[in-house]
């Protein structure tokens, strides 16, 4: 019996009346909490009118497996900024497996390429949960970040705040991580401060503010809201800073995420010096420990050398993930371990005994008495004086 392969398909909804659009929104509403959920009436409105109002594009998609709708994606593309913003990406709970997620993302990428959209950066917001005033990464968010990392996204180590979803949804204003996929610039692991602020400005003023412009009486107040958030972020990032895109965040407080400042020659020297002193201190501690073992236990020197080598091996093995150059030292230690583990190996390299000659006897006598005469006759005379014989 042969197993049939699943067929995947991504379909773009061009309007609110597109087949499957209403069902896709039901999937969306089932799995997003109220604090992170956009009104479905607003989504339906912009699905019908976005192209009429702006040169940019609103892109809702349905994801199908074997003709069954199981996922919904919502994105916005900004032409001048060459920026793609992912609003929502959700899959039915019964189909949440890594391979389904990877297929979903791959079909989105293929569709973006087929639409001819020139994209420099793809970004998405990942809200951080707050508990008793402390912002932590809950298990669901951590799992989502791991999935995004697996498809090429990295977390921008810079402050970001998700604006309110309208003026009445106060809970939706929350600290968040901004994840970035560099697409064709996959080798880039950092971006300039101005690039990051340009991305945030586009999200705030060309995405959020534009979205809520349908409420004319709230537009001015909402403009003030996003302006205040943007100024707050600008004030937290120093001039000349470089924003690291590190793949996964280490967050434990507030919306402020660490910012990597420009790496100068002085900072590189200080960092290298601190690492060198740390390694030197560790080696001194290990040496002192080995000498203490020798004094207390009276073990052989060869055993001490083996113990010392094993400690060094463990030390550099721990350093290897953080400092690639430590791997070379580790390789050298591995190469000498067999030599240290064989106590009789040195004996095999001792010189074989040679022939006994007059010169070798002289050298042997001199080693026995370095200050004595090197002349054999004189040596014989001294031996006779030390042991006189009886004359007949």
From TrEMBL:
Q: List compositional bias (Basic and acidic residues) regions by residue number.
A: 376-392
TM annotation in the entry: 273-293, 299-319
**What Gene3D superfamilies does the entry give?**
3.40.630.30
Basic residues bias: start-end ranges: 347-366
Highest taxon of source: Bacteria
Keywords from the named record: Membrane, Transmembrane, Transmembrane helix
Q: Where is this region: Disordered?
A: 347-392
| Identification of the protein by name | N-acetyltransferase domain-containing protein
What species was this sequence derived from? Longimicrobium terrae
